[in-house]
Amino acid sequence: MDTLIQLSDVTKRYDNDARPAVGGIQLTVAAGEAIAVMGPSGSGKSTLLNLIAGLDRPSSGAVTVAGERVDRLSETAVARFRRAKIGIIFQFFNLLDDLTVVDNVMLPARLAGMARRRARARAAELLEALRIESQRDTYPARLSGGERQRVAIARALVNRPELLLADEPTGALDSATGEQIGRLLLELNRSGQSLVLVTHNPDLAARYTGRSVELVDGQVARDSGDGRARSTDLVAGAEPGLQVLP
Fold first, then answer.
1. What is the mean pLDDT of residues 10-32?
2. Structurally, what CATH architecture does the domain formed by 32-57+74-232 represent?
3. Distance CA 190, CA 194 (A)
4. Whole-model pTM?
């Protein structure tokens, strides 16, 4: 499979005198993979995700995503790249409370220059696929945690990103709702969506991704992905994934 993410000897220091948040990371992720990034608090998981997203720049090393050296892009260019190529799901949803569900989902598409009618049609398609269309005109404060996370996933997918990054997407949810979101992410991967999932939950990682990367003190301590298995291959009798991708 084609390489989607390549981190080459990547180090990130927030303080020149302190231990690096990540140090000398080597990581390759193929298109179509679903991988879990795990490790204790302070191990560098969120820093790694931010480096891939271009939200942080490495102190040294190279970060390549979808063939682009994101560490070399200007702030304007990396923001444009992120809107086009990367969708991000946050633990606490990060929805705008003064916008309805459909307007929250449309927002990244409108910022990327998509016409309003087209953006609204794409949002409606996603809300239906993610089984939240009945709440399209509702404001986020009236939704349950699981419903808000479905809206956040729809928003992350609206520009058809090549890569979906999820930072503890079930961390603010009860266990039953977290299982629903885990299954939803698995469905997305079955449909071809590449996924990097940061989680503290080893069960979530084992059941809904095909590869686990464990960080300890900012370095890769374990990588189960020598075989590069996709999560699609791990579930016998898997149903077709969500039809929300090109």
1. 92
2. 3-Layer(aba) Sandwich (3.40)
3. 9
4. 0.88
